[in-house]
Amino acid sequence: MTASVLEIRARVRRRRSIVVSAVLLAVVVVAVVSLSMGDYAIAPADLWRTLWGGGDRAQTYVVFQVRAPRVVMALLVGASLGAAGALLQSLLGNPLASPDLLGISGGAGAAAVFAILILGLTGPLLAVAAFAGGLIVAAFLLLAGQRRADGGYRLILAGVGVAFLCVAVMNFLMVRAQVELAQSALIWLTGSLSSTPWWNVVTVLAVALLATPAVVACARWLPLTQMGPATAASLGVRTSTVSLAVVLTAVLLTAVTCAFVGPIAFIALCAPAIARPLLGHGAVGIGTSAAIGAALLGAADLVAQFALPGMSVPVGVVTGAIGAVFLLWLLATSKGRQL
């Protein structure tokens, strides 16, 4: 191995370490600010003392029962969506691939709305219904992509069509439902982190931990599949198996977050797109994308809570507004115009 190759690898590792450290620091800063700000402000020193069991009763209640579940859920959901977007973009080789634009979030949302309005399901059963809806859409897209050589681009168009169909189904169900049920479904569809109980956080954390080995395995296999089916097969990797594992993992991460906080738009699209130029060489670091997704959603939740004085808006409104601008910017760049 030549010295130049070693230098390049050392430079890539050094850059990756710097990027990961900076992103993790951003996550910590967002978490600290989120735990400190509010109607009952807590100084950083008091927050640190409270986290270690030294705060008074009011500080302990505010931190652990009011703010901490929301902050932890924001970080978990952002990380899950960031990882899901990175997996899909790496699989399809398309910067527009995300659960939102591919219709996976729409399928999960339509199934969840059906479960809420028609079946009256809540909690873990709602997550199962959302996963089933996302899986049905993903299976359709996989079949459509296998029939075309340029499936990555056609999948985006097919996904947009499926997303519109899911919106139509959700609107039909809400029009036919009772006002009270339709209102609860509408609040869920907006995407909100308010009133998050700890059991929701524990459920999402358990699913994320369950999916972590699959994410790590997919991260190792995806670079081999990008060399082509013949090369991957010679190295003992079947592209069809990798594609199925990636899609199932992405659907699981998307559906469980969608079930508990509603569809959070554009985090899965933005996080990998931010990670790619930071890491360089066109790489999509799945772990880095997950950390960026956590920081993005945590920051968006801060904006949702405190941007408008005396008024809190659902975090889905903020991510939708930011994501729409980001998508327009992505399409306006040279890479976006080639799609």
Automatic annotation (TrEMBL):
It comes from the Bacteria. The keyword Cell membrane applies. The keyword Protein biosynthesis does not apply. Keywords: Cell membrane, Membrane, Transmembrane, Transmembrane helix, Transport. It is a multi-pass membrane protein. The chain crosses the membrane at residues 18-42, 71-89, 101-119, 125-143, 155-177, 197-222, 242-275, 281-304, 311-332. It is found in: Cell membrane. It holds the Pfam family FecCD. PANTHER family: FERRIC ENTEROBACTIN TRANSPORT SYSTEM PERMEASE PROTEIN, FERRIC ENTEROBACTIN TRANSPORT SYSTEM PERMEASE PROTEIN FEPG. Belongs to the binding-protein-dependent transport system permease family. FecCD subfamily. This is FecCD family ABC transporter permease.
